[in-house]
Amino acid sequence: MSDVSDASNVFIKICGLRTAHDVEVAVAAGADAVGFVFAPGSPRTVDAATARELAGHVPDGVLTVGVFRGQSVAEVRRFAEESGVRGVQLHGEEGPEDFAALRAEGRTLLRATARHVKACGEYGEDLLLLDAPDPGSGKPWNWGSVEFTAPEGRWLLAGGLRPDNVAEALAVTGAWGVDVSSGVESERGVKSPDLIRAFIAAARGAGPAA
């Protein structure tokens, strides 16, 4: 992955995919990564076998990511190995030692947090995901606030993004990438192919990032 200098190169992750059709739509529309939720209690949760089957529709150039929340390192490692995902995204109170324990050849580590972080890589992660204070709610950051400080390095903005606001979010924050789940759904947990396409098109056409 290279640094982003304009919106056409923005890294785009479509998360919470549960069907082969949605995966194929996201890949065809130009997503750089697709996420499969392994965290319990979500309407988007899939098991390892389903994720492995879905990942079979993903070409090598698109990153497959398993999303975890508050799960043990042993459970994360097991799901990652059984599903074959090439990326692991952790939401929770994991520390640098957990990221070190999950480091493996060819695996991309993503750290998701709702806290202000100075820079990507502080915990040994490859990518930082800055989520809204209430993850999964569809409520965005107030990214236009003077209190919002963009991290340094490779970071993805998440939380409340939709096709109609992603261009503004990129222009205001200068984010290296974006992550979306509920913002491309027709109802909770059900992805809309049209919204996936519209989101990716809007992000690619946003113009140079600030």
Question: What is the 3D shape?
Answer: globular
Order of helices and strands: EHEHEHEHEEEHEEEH
Beta-strand residue percentage = 15-25%
The Cα radius of gyration reads: 16 Å
Strand order, largest beta sheet: 1-2-3-4-5-6-7-8
Helical/strand content category: alpha/beta
Walk me through what this model shows.
The strands form 2 sheets. An 8-stranded parallel barrel has the order 1-2-3-4-5-6-7-8, surrounded by 4 helices. It has 210 residues and is α/β, with parallel strands linked by helices. It has helices at 20-29, 48-55, 73-83, 96-102, 166-173, 193-204, and strands at residues 11-14, 33-37, 63-69, 87-91, 108-113, 127-130, 155-157, 177-180, 185-187, 190-191. 27% of the residues lie in helices and 20% in strands. The model is unreliable at 1-6 (pLDDT under 50). Strand 2 (33-37), helix 2 (48-55) and strand 3 (63-69) form a beta-alpha-beta unit.
List keywords for this structure.
single chain, 8-stranded parallel β-barrel, 6 helices, 10 strands, disordered N terminus
What's a quick, concise take on this entry?
With 210 residues, the chain is an alpha/beta fold. The protein contains six helices and ten strands.
Break the fold down into its secondary structure elements and pairings.
Layout (H helix, E strand, L loop, with lengths): L10 E4 L5 H10 L3 E5 L10 H8 L7 E7 L3 H11 L3 E5 L4 H7 L5 E6 L13 E4 L24 E3 L8 H8 L3 E4 L4 E3 L2 E2 L1 H12 L6
Parallel strand pairs: 1-2, 1-8, 2-3, 3-4, 4-5, 5-6, 6-7, 7-8
Antiparallel strand pairs: 9-10
Helix pairs in contact: 1-6, 2-3
